Each structure stands twice: as structure tokens, then as C-alpha cells.
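Chapter summary example: a protein plus glutamine.
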Amino acid sequence: TQAHVDAVTRAKQLNCYIVETPEKALDMAKAADARLARGEGGALEGLPLGIKDLYCTDGVQTTAASHILEGFVPRYESTVTSNLWRDGAVMLGKLNLDEFAMGSSNETSYFGPVVSPWRRNGSDAKIVPGGSSGGSSAAVAAHLCLGATATDTGGSIRQPAAFTGTVGIKPTYGRCSRWGIVAFASSLDQAGPITRNVRDCAIMLRSMAGHDLKDTTSVDAPVPDYEKAVGASVKGKVIGIPREYRLDGLSPEIAALWDRGIDWLRAAGAEIRDISLPHTRHALPAYYIVAPAEASSNLARYDGIRYGLRKTGKDIVDLYEKTRAEGFGKEVRRRIMIGTYVLSAGYYDAYYLRAQKIRSLIKRDFDLAYEAGVDAILTPATPSPAFAQGEKGSADPVEMYLNDVFTVTVNMAGLPGLVVPAGLSSDGLPLGLQLIGRPFEEETLFSLGEAIE
Ligand code: GLN
């Protein structure tokens, strides 16, 4: 823990942490030492972790990287972080993210962008760590924690993992409790870990997961010992290769990476099968209706009265308006406007309802593939390697949204998705592959992920 605390202090230029909690970390580490000396101790005893600043932490500022929550100190602890502390983990601090987890490059944070520890060959340009869990992915990649919590609404665990050469899993919807995690789009949000290898990911998820009476969407099912699945044989597993993910204009480099992944799994004994997920191309536009719709509703609570920032106004409505205008950043305001628009009486049927129907069709595509015997699906994680700060999305936000083309389907269908590092781009940046599983069969993903890693 001391070594990590020192490393965090030395690596301020990456801007991974919004709040550092060194005293708390050393206290927790001492308590862990005492438990270990007594022959006690949990699965994560003494392991120093970073916590995405979307998880409420009792007595420690929680901001969702937004000005509107600056100074908000929860008096309660999220279920997932409570589970980690129960198993002996140590908290190093709160990790930076895109504001309210909206973004794919960690450039929308009120506390400034996170910088990836990676660089392109022969270039000093600052590279983005992905988003929204960019603080988590960069901190894990730069050894500023052993593992980190993250969240994934449309790719925010998997895309940053792919951009930084780390491992991340979005578990099945309902696997982890969402209680005490700042809500973005409640029907899509899931907690999960980012780590440096598949085994760590399995160990950390086991602690994070489990039923919770405080989240009615969390599922009452036993949590398997995921670590046992790491290294297990994948012989005979049927791997679907969805033809619709071979997008027009898919870069040759990404196509070659995907082919290499197929070869590795075949060499490990898996059976490769071409499959079709016909509604794939509608997933991204439908996601960018459903997610902002739910966000506009969830973010209505930030009124300047209950949490964080409060501007003065001539009356209560003026106070709300001033607080929200100043408190929310540009991307968050854009999402709220899209969300309220697609939910409004005149446009609900044309946009929101239609997007929900598309969502059912996407889910059915996966169901049919799994019913036909497919155990897991292999796809690229991202359409490109990480890009430089300021390179994408400033003129046209859709350019940034396109990053999520391979990841949003998984959230729309509520499935588990694991991203593992699978190689480097021609300019020396990490590339990841994604494995999509059957509901609640994260174990299969860990076995396959280990075979690729
Ligand atoms: N990049 C996507 C978005 O901006 C996904 C974010 C997330 O998974 N939290 O909505």
C-alpha cells in the first residue's frame, strides 16, 4: 500500500485520481496486516484498489466528475465497495471518469482529462485512456493500483480496458448491485472490475458481485468461484463470429486482430462458427436514445437543493436553472436535452418506443444464437486503437459515439462482456478483443479470456 501511495503521488500528470486517501489507505492496510497476523483475512486482504468516483464512499467526496456534485460527501457506502472492504481490500482514492460516465475518452471530466500512460511510437502526443472509466484503466495500466472498480453502461469498462492493454468485464445485468452507484441509465448500468490480467479480474468480480436487497434488479443467484474458471479447458466450446460486426470500412489492422483471436481459440480446442446478429446496426442509434432518456430522468435530482453545488437565484426556479446551467458540463447538458426530447409527448412513439423495440430485437438475436448452441461470441472491442487528446468528437459528438459500436449491444441485451488485450497496433498502442457470453455465464468468458491472454 505504501508503494502504491508513493506511486500515486509521483504520477499526478496522468490525473487518474480526483481524491487521494493515503491516510485511510494506510489505516486499512494496518488493519489488514493485523487480520493476517491473526491468521484471518479475506480474498482481497491488503490489496490496494482505486474506486471510480461514481461509487458512493462513506465520508469521502463523490463527484461523478461533475461540478454539480463538487463537495458532496455521502454518508453511506455503495454495496459493491462494501463488499470489497468486507474482503479486506484497501482504498487508495477516487478515480477520475467522464462526467456522469458520459463519454469514451475521459475528456468530459470537470476535473480535467486523464492521460494514458501509453504513447504512440515516436510521438509525445497525449493519448486518451478511453472512457468513461479512464481513471480506472489508466491507473491500472500505470500501476497506480492493483485493480480498480469501473462501471459500464455502453462500453465504459471494456473500451478503456482495450485502450490501455488491461482486462475488464461488464458482468451480466443484475450480477452486481447498483446500490450507491451514481445512476446514468439504470437499465444498462453495471459495475465491474478493471485489472491487469484475467485472473485478477475473476478474483475481484467474485468479491464485487452478489444479491442485494437494496437493488431490486440484482439477481438472487450464488456467485461462483470465478478463479476456478481461469485456465479451465475451452475444448469444444462453440464460438460465434457475427458477420454484422465486420463493418464496412473496418480497419485491416482490427480485422487481422480478430482473425488472430479466432486462430488462438481454435488452437485451444474451441469450435468456430459464423453467426448472424441481424439487428446489430441499429444498436448504436437505439442506445443513444435509451441511455440519454434514462439519464435525463436520473439527473433530474440534481436541483441544487439536495447535493453539492448550489447557486443563489431570485426564486427557487431561478436557483434550479442557475445551478444546473453551471453545474453540468456540455456533454451532460446535450444528453439531458436529447433525453427529454425523445421522451416528450410528441416524439415518444417515434424515438423512445421504437428504440425499446429495437432493444428487444437485439436481445432476441443473441438468444437465438445461444439457443443454436453458441457458448460465446468473439468480436473486436473497439473500431480503432486509442486516439490523441482533442483528436475526436470536438466538432461532431457522433464521431465519439461511434467508438461504442462493438460494446453497446451487450448492454442493450444485458449480457456479460469481457475485454482482453490481444496485441499492439502498428503505432504501438494496445488493442483488445471482446468475448460476449450467455447470461450469468461469466465463467466461460474467463476461461476463453485466459486462452487469448
Ligand atoms: N461511451 C458511452 C456513452 O458515452 C458509454 C458510457 C458508459 O458505458 N458509461 O454513453
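Key point: Residues 2-229 form a domain with the Amidase signature (AS) enzymes fold (CATH 3.90.1300.10).
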